[in-house]
Amino acid sequence: MDNLNMTIDPSCLREAPLAVDVIKQLDVFGIILYSCLTLMAAVSLLVYLEECVYVYKKVPSPKKTTIIWVIGAAPVIATMSCLGLWIPKAIMFTEMTSSSYFAIVVYKFLILMLEECGGEEEFLRRCGKGRFRISTGPCCCCCPCLPRVPVTRRMLTILKFGSLQFALLKTVFCIICIVLWTNGNFDLTDLGITGTAIWINPFVGILTIIALWPVAIMFMHVRNILRSQKIIPKYAMYQLVLVLSQLQTAIINILALNGSIACAPPFSSQVRGSLMSQQLLILEMFIITLVNRLLFRRHYDPLPAADQHEKDNAENATIILHRESGDNMA
């Protein structure tokens, strides 16, 4: 902003620059920063590929497919953020790709908890007499008076569908947004009542909350059963990816739209805010990828049978009865 005539620098109103323009304006610090972030994204991808090979060889189906999907969230987001960092014009596409992949991970994490219990049938046999506590976040954490619902196959199907709808509809909405963008009808910065973004984004937010609720319900039910499978730190990493990739990015974009992030030619405030978000995500997803490697790259032992103690008690009771019968006969 020029202090004399209060005019805006024309470069702050331009669209995102081309990749070659980004490279030309890099100074020594920028070259070092971009190189380190690119190296982190590359290492994240290599660590993920190494994990995939290990899981594919050591873990039986179908659990290995689910694990590969879940551990891929952080490296995929890091890779897409690196592409958006070097090619600012593609940021909208890289963010949509990351969000679509994570929408699938939300559903896959629910399936992972079931498979850690031994599958759907084993889960129902183990927990069929229990009840789900539905007063959990993000929908009903403030409603402890809600009744608990029985663990049935029908209820389990409802929970799975609640997360599956987000994986499907999020991808559909991303495709619709891209089609509208090519026709000039979609702009993330257009928050007017006539803009399409102001209608699509809140609806996607509602779908996100609906999808996260079943995962939270399932986690609260199995967290003690799967404590030996390190389900609590795994769930923490899943939640951390959610907060950083969705909430953090949304906050930075809102600050950029309000002008709280200063323009730095050739980047407008919106583009600069997006680049800051990509840089943070690469570093954060790199750390999460390393932590996930410690959590998932291990030997997978099956859970003990649900009725193991009941069988032992029955056998002990039978032995005692036989001994008592023998003593009486003697």
Q: What does this protein look like?
A:
By secondary structure, the chain is mainly alpha-helical. It has a two-stranded antiparallel ribbon. It has one domain. 69% of the residues lie in helices and 1% in strands. It is a multi-pass membrane protein. The chain crosses the membrane at residues 28-47, 67-87, 163-182, 202-223, 235-256, 276-296. This is Organic solute transporter subunit alpha. It is found in: Membrane.
In whole angstroms, how far apart are the ends? Answer: 105 Å
Strand order of the largest sheet: 1-2
- Rg: 25 Å
Find the structural class using helix and strand composition. mainly alpha
Molecular shape: globular
Q: Which segments are poorly predicted (pLDDT under 50) over 5 or more consecutive residues?
A: 1-7, 308-318
Secondary structure: elements and pairs:
Elements: H1 19-24, H2 28-58, H3 63-71, H4 73-86, H5 91-116, H6 120-127, E1 131-132, E2 149-150, H7 153-182, H8 197-222, H9 231-257, H10 269-296, H11 308-329
Antiparallel strand pairs: 1-2
Helix pairs in contact: 2-3, 2-4, 2-10, 3-5, 4-5, 4-10, 5-7, 5-8, 5-9, 7-8, 9-10
Features:
330 residues, single chain, disordered N terminus, 11 helices
